Structure prediction request, 385 residues.
Amino acid sequence: MSQLGTESAFEVLARASLLEAEGRSIVHLEIGEPDFATPPHIVAAAEAAIEDGYTHYTPSGGIPEVRDAVAAHYSSRLGQEVTGDRVILTPGSKNILMFAVMALINEGDEVILPDPGYPIYASLVSFFGGIPVSLPLREESGFRFHADELATLITDRTRMVILNSPQNPTGGVLLQEDVVAVAELAVKHDLWVVSDEIYSQIAYDGPVPSIASLPGMLERTIVMDGLSKAFAMCGWRLGIGVAPAELIKHMETLMINSSSCATAFIQVATMTALEAPESEVSVARMVHEYRARRDVVVDGLNAIPGVHCHLPGGAFYVFPNITGTGIGEQELADGLLGEAGVATLPGTAFGPMGKGFLRLSYGKDIPHLEEGIKRIGEYLTARQR
Ligand code: PLP
Prediction:
């Protein structure tokens, strides 16, 4: 168990909630969860599915009709033929990652993953005996990796590369040339790729390229996706995996050994989420609002002396550089929570490359964000006096 990591967002949320219970006012910029309500047409579809009796176990990979509908959605999104036997539905996308690592990583296998990056990647890889290898993402490159650097990290023990675009925690987005470079290396060195696309629909500069859309890559890619972020459905728990049929069969066995199946009526509502015309409108409306929030947060942070914030291209996170304040990231995050009443995360919660950064989520409305930025500015001004 000592190998298993955690997500500090949940820990900071717990600390912030304790302070609130003591009567303190806290601005929550820590947890990566949209504040929007789930679009009503999806709620209605789930309610109707309960009424229709979708309250029983389903096949472990998902209801065949739903898998086929999800496959059709990914066929058009990826421009590659995806069939239902290449799709699995799980309670949240984290299961897809866990199952991929359990199925493919042996003791001592190396897995290249983004640093800073979603902490669960390194946690699961280590837990199942693999060796996480950090691929640095730097601010000056818009938090994209360098393909040359990636090439130097590959050894004869490398088995998998994990990509995430748009990215948590930086909001960075990979370009077509980046995914092409990874695909070439993956083919050359016979590697698996996990492509975490959970934020793919929250992008501000057009569609985000998927490595799975490149010729031949569906055979060695596990797309990790779900309804949590794009549809404001974190608490529903519905993850979607797209992978070669042979691997999906093993993932189904892992489902039989763990959750049995994803919740039946949520599977049915997934078809509505992915297909209904209202979904497109709802997602576009949310992305429009996220963009406005992003601009408020980035402008606000850049106006604070000692803080520099890169403009992210997607997701709902900013990753400001705070080295100019002269305060370390953990000390600053602690001070902001304890003294200023703003919950943020230290960049190092996402890997060593997060040193000198904070991560803020803008899953909250603009007045909330403005209050948070005001408190951060006042706190830093008072400290620098
Ligand atoms: N991947 C990334 C990069 C995330 O940030 C998160 C959640 O914060 C997840 C996956 C997990 O999402 P889900 O709710 O589908 O388990």
Remarks:
- The first strand starts at residue 27 and ends at 28.
- The chain has a mean pLDDT of 97.
- Residues 73 and 275 are 8 Å apart (CA to CA).
